[in-house]
Amino acid sequence: MELTDLPYSPGALQPHLSERSVALQHGQHQRACVDQVNARISGTEWEDAPLERIVRESQGALFEAAAQAWNLQFQWQCLRPRGGGDPVGRLADRVKRCFGDAASLRKAFNDAALGLFGAGWAWLVLHPDGSLAVVVTRNAATPLTSHSVPLLACNLWEHAYYLDYQNDRARYLDAWWKAVNWEFAAEQLPG
């Protein structure tokens, strides 16, 4: 398995996320997860399996490394230079139906993210019944192992925001929303 490239240069998310912070998360943390996965799957039935399958079917240390690698890979697509704003089209319609408006979605997301003690992730997901929801997962856990479709992911591990925002998760979330890639989130909606 290879470390996937960023969909933009490491400095492209500035001023919201610094080049140094993106490089640390991608080049150090994500690379370490990929290396751990590769070490654990070498010579096993998982050796040629796609990352998503490993996440869905593995357990223990392999799951932790694979899920974190997948979460980080997904996260980079959830962000983009000159991102932010509000969703449009079908996604905007679902946000309105499920949350009232984008501001209410952001509040629900931030409240959930700020309420998570310790490391993990905040997600916007699409449930099988067509409703949107905000969920948080601890450590490397991911909605990929559920029946829900992840649309957006926000990394809540301290290393995601310590360099730029020290321990101020609220300031980090404010900056994160300014880089959100709503187009990518909308592309995750089925048909």
From TrEMBL:
Mn(2+) binds at H159. Belongs to the iron/manganese superoxide dismutase family. Residues 2-79 form the Manganese/iron superoxide dismutase N-terminal domain. Destroys radicals which are normally produced within the cells and which are toxic to biological systems. The lineage of its organism: Bacteria, Pseudomonadati, Pseudomonadota, Gammaproteobacteria, Lysobacterales. SUPFAM superfamilies: Fe,Mn superoxide dismutase (SOD), C-terminal domain, Fe,Mn superoxide dismutase (SOD), N-terminal domain. One of its GO terms (molecular function) is superoxide dismutase activity. Its EC number is 1.15.1.1. It comes from Stenotrophomonas chelatiphaga. This is Superoxide dismutase. It catalyses: 2 superoxide + 2 H(+) = H2O2 + O2.
